Every structure is written in structure tokens, then in C-alpha cells.
Amino acid sequence: MDWIMLIIGLFVGYALDTIVSAKETGGKSLFKSIRFKIGRNQIHFHHWLWYLILILILLLIGFYSAIVYGILIGMILHTWTFKDWYGVVKRK
Fold first, then answer.
1. Is 33 exposed, middle or buried (0-12, 13-18, 19+ CB in 10 A)?
2. Tens digits of per-residue pLDDT, 19-45?
3. How many separate domains does the chain show?
4. With CB atoms 3.0 to 4.6 Å apart as the test, which of 9, 47, 77, 79 could cross-link to 71 if both were Cys?
């Protein structure tokens, strides 16, 4: 049963992130991108990093829900479809 809930969560998360995210790299999203400077570097804290941190926190506190993890992983998978998903540090 957990596998079914995980798979359902994957689809829900992917679809949800499709709705709230920009349609293409650099486009408008419902959530503002988090960017800040450290020296001459610009750090872009992508949404998938937030989702990953949330998964780690949930694991650390002992929370387990297959559907919640499925949703978060589905959202991560969707954000990896963007061209700049890996670009966390940009040198200026």
C-alpha cells in the first residue's frame, strides 16, 4: 500500500509543481526565486533544494508518510526538467 501512495504522491507532486512553477526557465512563478550574493558569487536557492531540505528534516524528526514523500519527490523531479536546475552558484 505504501508503494501505491508513493506513486500517487509522485504524480500529484509533479502536477502540483507544474501548476505553481514557471512554464519555462526564467519565467514567472507563483513563488519568487531566492537569490543572494556572497562576494562575487550569486547563489540561486532552487525550489528543489527547499523540497530536499524538507525531506531531510522530516526524516530527521521521524515523520513518515509515503504520500508526502511522494509529493515532495514529484516536485523535485519536475524542477529538474528546467535547463538551470543545477545552477546554484553563478560567478559574477
1. exposed
2. 887 666 555 666 667 777 888 887 777
3. 1
4. 9
